[in-house]
Amino acid sequence: MIKKILFVLVVAFLVQNVWTVVQAKEITVYKSRFCGCCSNWTRYMNDNGFNVTEKPVENVASLKKKFGIPQHLSSCHTAVVEGYVLEGHVPVSDLRRLLKERPDIRGLAVRGMPTGAPGMEQGNRKDDFRVIAIRKDGSTFVYSSHKGN
To answer: Has this prediction a pTM greater than 0.90?
Structure first.
């Protein structure tokens, strides 16, 4: 009886791991080679089931222009996942919502580098911040708000 239970648990574990790999989304992160918080965000996304590849670039500003990121929403890194652009420290909850709902937008942005946002942790301190959706015409709207403490 114990062998059967152990067998079922091992099979369940293997199926869960295979399913996670099948579901994993590829993210490419473009960043300055000198930015550590970008690597913190990359690690956060990897820890939450995404496969992230970092690509250091010399001219981050021209890349942001290429992807249509409004200058006032610029942050330290730009990522691409399934045709959407992510600017800055976007939380995984917002990315998952984006990939589930698939709105007709260019992507999401977190302006600047707010303390407590993913990759910007500073102990227990968390600032309020908003995730901004960027429409294809460049206009924006608030996609979500995150409360600090």
So the answer is: no
